[in-house]
Write a structure and sequence with these properties.
By secondary structure, this protein is an alpha+beta fold. The chain has a single domain, classed as Alpha-Beta Plaits (2-Layer Sandwich), CATH 3.30.70. The chain is built from eight helices and nine strands. The strands form four sheets. A three-stranded mixed beta sheet has the order 8-1-9. The protein has a two-stranded antiparallel sheet with strand order 2-3. Strands 4-5 form a two-stranded antiparallel ribbon. Helix 3 (about 75-85) packs across helix 7. The protein is globular. The termini are close together.
């Protein structure tokens, strides 16, 4: 599941943050020319600042047990589509926030099924490359896109090693109030932030539990008393593309 980088150099966190800030300032100068009248530059300058009332002491995450995830089961995908108003792959350009993949162990031939979505990295590449600050990470670790300042450049899509973001090509109708979307913007798994902020589980987690699989465990990785933190501490788990040192909020066990 891992591959070596082309370069062994790892950029220090403080340099990444400095570069991120520089890009935000540089984008503000360009945006005055590119964006429509009425968009205040101060909104772009503030894009890199913490947003929402997220608790900085919390790190929301998921632990996915591949041994409990059934091949061919798409309950989590269907729940995500229903919750977020996605059409579920009716056309080649449809958004896909979560997808099922099959992996195979070369030595044994063993196959397993895994759901893959935005991994909500602690050091998200999508945030590093975003020229306007539209891609941002909340204080509680959830990575989101601010549709008001996304210019549709799709740099974040190229930077994401998980192919977890989609571009909205067509006009949208029948949107859900809690999940704003828009043509010409990039989007991806929000970890159902609108539900999490109300104390509820993400839709995919609830659907998996309701189906009797309970393959996805959601909770606070920072709370040693939480079920997810206990499981991560007691049992071996992995991150997709561990070699990138992104410290993902989504972990996998059982393979």
């Amino acid at each position: 599941m891992t591959a070596n980088r082309s370069s062994g150099h790892t950029q220090p966190a403080h340099e990444r943050k400095g570069r991120r800030g520089f890009l935000g300032i540089a984008a503000a100068g360009v945006a005055g020319i590119l964006l429509a009248p009425g968009v205040r530059l101060i909104e772009i300058a503030q894009a890199g600042q913490p947003k929402g009332g997220a608790n900085p002491g919390v790190r929301w995450g998921m632990l996915i047990d591949s041994t409990a995830c059934s091949s061919g089961c798409t309950d989590c995908v269907k729940a995500c589509n229903t919750e977020n108003g996605l059409t579920g792959g009716q056309s080649a350009t449809d958004s896909q926030w979560i997808r099922k993949i099959e992996i195979k162990e070369v030595r044994t031939g063993k196959t397993q099924s895994l759901p893959v979505m935005c991994q909500h990295c602690a050091e998200p590449p999508c945030v590093d490359v975003c020229p306007t600050g539209a891609s941002f990470k909340r204080a509680d670790g959830i990575v989101l896109v601010d549709k008001h300042i996304c210019i549709g450049c799709r740099y974040c899509m190229m930077a994401c090693p998980y192919k977890a973001r989609s571009f909205v090509h067509e006009p949208l109708t029948g949107q859900k109030p809690d999940v704003p979307r828009g043509k010409g913007t990039v989007e991806g798994c929000t970890m159902c932030v609108h539900r999490v902020d109300k104390g509820e589980m993400p839709a995919c987690v609830l659907a998996c539990k309701t189906a009797g699989h309970s393959a996805i465990l959601f909770g606070d990785l920072n709370d040693p008393k939480s079920d997810i933190a206990k499981r991560v501490a007691q049992y071996a788990s992995r991150q997709l593309r561990e070699d990138l040192n992104l410290n993902t909020g989504v972990r996998y066990a059982g393979f």
